[in-house]
Write a structure and sequence with these properties.
This protein has a domain of 228 residues: Thiamin diphosphate (ThDP)-binding fold, Pyr/PP domains (Rossmann fold), CATH 3.40.50. α1 packs across α6 and α5 runs antiparallel to α7. By secondary structure, it is an alpha/beta fold. It has an 8-stranded mixed β-sheet, with helices on both faces. Strands 8-9-10 form a 3-stranded antiparallel β-sheet, with no helix packed on it. It is built from 9 helices and 11 strands. Helices cover 26% and strands 18% of the residues.
Length: 337
């Protein structure tokens, strides 16, 4: 059947028949709803879509999508997702992970899927806690965080997922919030990108780390604590849109527009192709600076699976198609009596 004659799918078509079993009020519900809508908007097909996850609350995601899926093992979702994409490059592969699954045991695998630019969309749900195992501190928990595994407060500095993604050469890096108005548009842009798309999603764990990101969700104050990134636009924020970020002696500082003659032209302007600027923005942390939301960085390059397919085609053209028997009997062989 031709693509043009296929029925138009809706968000409901991407909902599985499984009961969603996250805690009531969990931010994962909002993300799930928007992902289903984005799948339909992008024109994705159920039979050509795969969701891969590791272990954790977020990793139940494949159960709730009416697509193909793997609920894999702790930290190894990138390896499995890569295998799926290489085996069938025509599939649209999405990977769902958490700050614990993706940045602790899975940190090494995450780094390599990003640097290889595998055409996979990676959603990292960051709630700054281990929720499934009942509230231990995670790689993104803030310094001093008191939990069941750090009763005197964590003495570790938190990892910045975006800084890690940028250092690993991800070709699309973005951040959003589970209940923010821009979540769907960020997911849509990630879905349209060809290459490793990494999206960090601030997600509320209302049981073990409730309101960890309230400064990004409170309707009365959030615009004073976040910067909405727009390519080619100045870094302006604040409920009154009267604050901005400029560089002074090579360091960022907050300024007030109109005060001391400060104009929009004096501010930093966002450039999605500027990796250095993206890294600088990834280091902005609340409450010292407003936290950027949106697409930090994007560039287009050959995907891993395309390069690998081309390499196999070149080898086949040069040497012909081989056989398993010829491979097993190639070189030195031994008969064990």
């Amino acid at each position: 059947m031709a693509e043009s004659s296929l029925p138009v799918l809706t968000a409901k078509d991407f909902a599985s028949d499984q009961d969603v079993r996250w805690c009531p009020g969990c931010g994962d519900y909002a993300i799930l709803a928007q992902v289903r809508k984005v799948m339909a908007k992008l024109g994705n097909r159920i039979e050509k879509t795969v969701f891969v996850s590791g272990i954790g609350c977020s990793s139940r995601f494949p159960y709730y999508m009416n697509t193909y899926g793997f609920h894999s093992i702790h930290g190894r979702a990138p390896a499995i997702a890569t295998g799926v994409k290489i085996a069938n490059p025509d599939l649209d592969v999405w990977m769902v992970t958490g700050d614990g699954d993706g940045l602790s045991i899975g940190g090494n695998h995450l780094m390599h899927i990003l640097r290889r630019n595998v055409n996979i969309k990676i959603l990292l749900f960051n709630n700054r806690i281990y929720g499934l195992t009942k509230g231990q501190y995670s790689p993104t928990s803030e310094e001093g965080k008191k939990t069941k595994s750090s009763p005197m407060g964590s003495i570790e500095l938190p990892i910045s997922p975006l800084s890690i993604a940028l250092a690993a050469e991800a070709s699309f890096v973005a951040r959003t919030v589970d209940v923010d108005k821009d979540l769907a548009s960020i997911l849509e842009r990630a879905g349209q990108h060809k290459g490793s798309a990494f999206v960090e999603i601030y997600q509320d764990c209302n049981i073990f780390n409730h309101k960890a990101f309230e400064y990004t969700t409170d309707k009365d104050t959030k615009e004073d604590h976040i910067i909405r990134l727009e390519h080619g636009k100045p870094l302006i924020f604040g409920k009154a849109r009267n604050k901005g970020i400029r560089l002074h002696n090579h360091k960022p500082e907050i300024v007030e527009l109109g005060k001391d003659g400060v104009k929009e032209d004096d501010l930093l302007f966002h450039d999605e192709k500027d990796e250095s600027l993206a890294y600088l923005l990834s280091r902005f942390t609340h409450p010292e600076f407003p936290e950027p939301m949106g697409v930090f960085y994007k560039y287009d390059d050959d995907s891993y699976e395309d390069l690998l397919t081309k390499q196999v085609e070149d080898a086949t053209k040069a040497r012909g198609r081989g056989t398993i028997a010829a491979l097993l009997n190639a070189g030195d062989t031994y008969t064990v009596g």
